Amino acid sequence: MAQAAQQETTFTYEGTDAKGKKVKGEMPGKSAALVRTELRRQGVKVSKIRKKSQINIGGKGKVQPSDIAIFTRQLATMMKAGVPLVQGFEIVADGLDNPAMREVVINIKNDIEGGSSFGGALRKHPEHFDDLFCSLIESGEESGALETMLDRVALYKEKSEALKQKIKKALKYPITVIVVAVIVTVILLVKVVPTFQELFQGFGAELPAFTQFVIGISEWVQDRWFVGLFVIAGAIVGFQQAHKRSQAVANAVDRLLLKLPIIGDLTYKATVARFARTLSTTFAAGVPLIDALEACAGATGNVVYRNAVMQVKDDVATGQQLQFAMRNTGVFPNMALQMTAIGEESGALDSMLAKVAQYYEDEVDNAVDGLTSMMEPLIMGVLGVLVGGLIIAMYLPIFQLGSVV
Fold first, then answer.
1. In a structure prediction context, what are the per-residue pLDDT tens digits for the chain, which is 405 residues long?
2. Cα 240 to the center of its chain, rounded Å
3. SS3 of 48, please?
4. Residue 189: DSSP 8-state
5. How far apart are CA 85 and CA 327, in angstroms?
6. How far apart are alpha carbons 287 and 139 in whole angstroms?
7. Whole-angstrom distance between the N-terminal and C-terminal Cα of the chain?
8. Is 329 exposed, middle or buried (0-12, 13-18, 19+ CB in 10 A)?
9. What's the alpha-carbon Rg for the chain, to the nearest Å?
10. ∠ at Cα 38 (37, 39), nearest 5°?
11. In terms of Cα–Cα distance, which of 378, 335, 372 is closest to 166?
C-alpha cells in the first residue's frame, strides 16, 4: 500500500506567473498539494488544479513499439547530456503524449527510486520490454557503460521499427485498394445491377449468359450478404486465432511467406537484416556469442531462420567458426557470410554485422519502392476487370438489342 501511495499522477493547472500573465500546463506529482507547492516555488500562483482525465478517446493510450523506441532514444540523449537517470525519467515522462507510456515511465522511475536496478524495473513490464531489451540494459549497468548501451539499444529499436514500417508500407497500399474494390463491387451489385435487371425484364428475350451470371451474383448478394460477411469475418478471425494459438500454423505461414513470388524476397531480406542487427547489437554489448545467438533466434521472426540460428548456436558451441556454422544452414546469403568471415578474422564482427544489417535494410527499402511501383498497374488492372466487367455485363443486352433493331 505504501508503494501505491508513492505513485505519481499527472495534474493540470491554471494560474498566473510572477508578471501576472495567465499560464496553464501539466505537472506530475504525488498529490495536488505537492504540485501546488512546487508551482508556487517556481513563481506560479495557482488558481485551479485537478487530476488529468485518464479517459482516452479514439483508442489512444496503448503502448506501441514506436513509443518504446522514442523513450529509449530520449533517455539515451538525456544520459549523454549528463542528466542523472531518475531526473531523465522525469523529463522524458513530461514530454510523452501517450498517457499509458507516461505511466509506464513513471512506474519505472518509482521502482528505481525504491532501490530496483534499471533492468529489474524494466522486467516488471514484460509486455513492453522483451528479454533482449532487459538483458542489454542489465549488461550496460554491470559494465558501467549504461549510457553507451542505451544509445545502442535506441539505435536497435529505431532500426527495427523502421524495418517494420517499410514492410507495412509495402502491404498497406494493395490491401487498401483491394478493400475499396470489394466495397465498390458490392455497391454496384446491390444498387446498380437491380436497376438494369428491372429494365431487362421488359425485353422479352433471353439475356446473354454473362449478364445472367452477374444478375445471379447480384441476387445472391442482396439475399445472403450476411452469409458472405459472416464467412469472410469468420475466416479472418479463425486464421488469426489459429496463427496465434497453433505453432504448426504459424510455422507453416512463415515457410509460405519465404516461398511467395514477391513477398518472399522481401521477407527474406527483412529477416536477414533483423538477424544481423540483433547479433551486432548484442555482441557489441559484450554478450557472449552463444547467448547472443540464442537472443537472435527469437528476433528473426521466422521459424526457418529461428531453427537455422539455433543450429548455428549449437555448432558454435562445439568450437566451429560462426561463418562456417552459418554456411552449413544454407539459408544465409553469400554477402552476409563473407562479411561475417571478415569480421571474425579482423576482430570487428559487430561492425561488419552492422554493415550487413544496413545493406539489407536498404534492400528492403528499395524492394518496397519497387513493389509499390509494380503493384499500381496490377491493381488498376484488377479494378478495371471488376468494374469494367460489371458494366459490360449490364450493357451487353442493350448492345444486342440495338444490333437486332
1. 344 444 567 777 888 877 777 877 777 777 777 778 878 877 788 887 777 654 444 444 588 888 888 888 888 888 888 888 888 888 888 878 788 888 888 889 888 888 888 888 888 888 888 877 888 888 788 777 788 888 888 888 888 888 778 777 777 777 887 788 888 888 888 888 888 877 777 666 677 888 888 888 888 888 877 787 888 888 888 888 887 888 888 888 889 888 888 788 888 988 898 899 888 888 887 888 888 888 788 778 888 998 999 999 999 999 899 999 999 998 999 999 999 999 988 888 989 998 998 899 888 888 877 777 777 787 788 778 887 888 888 888 777 665 544
2. 16
3. strand
4. I
5. 43
6. 8
7. 91
8. middle
9. 30
10. 90
11. 372
Alpha-helix residue ranges (DSSP H) falling in 246-288 = 247-259, 263-284
Output phi, psi for 16, to 5 deg. -130, 145
Among 173, 337, 362, 341, CA closest to 269: 362
Q: Distance (Å, rounded) from C-alpha 93 to C-alpha 28?
A: 9
Give the C-alpha distances (Å, rounded to integers) separating 98 from 10, 60, 104, 358: 12, 7, 10, 30
Q: Which amino acid is at 286?
A: G
| Number of Cβ within a 10 Å radius of residue 36 | 19
CA separation for the pair 6, 107 (Å, rounded): 10
User: Could you report the per-residue pLDDT of 102-136, keeping only the tens digit for each?
Assistant: 888 888 988 888 888 888 888 888 888 887 788 88
Number of H helices, E strands in the chain: 17, 3
Q: Quickly count: other Cβ atoms within 10 Å of residue 276's Cβ.
A: 25
User: All 3 cell numbers of residue 310?
Assistant: 539455433
Name 402's Cβ contacts closer than 8 Å, sequence gap at least 6. none
Q: Which of 128, 136, 163 is nearest to 300 (CA)?
A: 163
The 22-29 sheet, strands edge to edge: 22-29, 9-16, 45-51
